[in-house]
Amino acid sequence: MTRNGWLGLALVVLFSAPIVAGTLAGITLPDSTDVNGQQLVLNGMALRKKVVFKVYVAGLYLPAREQSGEKILAADQPRCTVMHFLRGVSANQVNEAWYDGLEANTPGYSAQLKQQFDALAALMEKLNDGDKLVFTYRPGIGTEVKVKGKVKGTLGDKAFADALFSCWIGKKPGPGEKFKAGLLGQ
Which domain, by its residues, includes 103? Predict the structure, then answer.
């Protein structure tokens, strides 16, 4: 192949490849994702550690970058969290984190919200290194739950989405303040 041919091929590859926003703990996430025709941008990434073990890398996608968890939760706009697991965890371990997050961030939650978290827990399964959980909130529709690439269901309303996303960016994020700051791009 001629030099111009190689250059042309390189330009095609360069401009057809997805633009990458960042890499954390060896996990690379794209700078945007499409939610029903709307582009959401990667707001930030964070690493969840438990003791010394790396558990997952998460990315938070929003319509526009925002560093305030309160503003994100107040807005009735699409949002998406991707969790890429770096080690195996049981469904019970994941569910324990959901319930801890609900207790810590949504005091006085309703029986309906508890039932929605119970429904979320029923959708969880054992996750292995490389598996993903994806939560996509769509206003007026609910939060789509995708486990290992399969849509498992759509749950709740904005109150459920706010309680779920509060587990990561609420006042008492289960994975900690450093994790929250990473998702908020701080």
Answer: 20-183
Rounded-to-10 torsion of CA 91, 97, 99, 100 = 160
**Cβ neighbours of residue 152 under 8 Å, at least 6 residues apart?**
123, 145, 146
Instruction: Report yes or no on 126 lying in a domain.
Output: yes
Q: Assign residue 172 the CATH number of its domain.
A: 3.50.70.10
pLDDT tens digits, residue range 164-183? 999 999 999 999 999 999 99
Phi/psi at 127 (5° precision): -115, 140
**Of residues 92, 55, 82, the one with CA closest to residue 147:** 82
**Statement: residue 18 has pLDDT above 90:** no
Is 39 inside any structural domain? yes
**Structural domain contains residue 2:** no
Alpha carbon distance 52, 37 (integer Å): 40
Look-up: residue for tokens 């890499």? 23
Please, are residues 45 and 168 in contact by the beta-carbon 8 Å criterion?
no
pLDDT in tens, 52-104: 899 999 999 999 999 999 999 999 999 999 999 999 999 999 999 999 999 99
At 6 the pLDDT is 41
User: What domain count does the chain have?
Assistant: 1
Question: Does the residue 82 lie in any domain?
Answer: yes
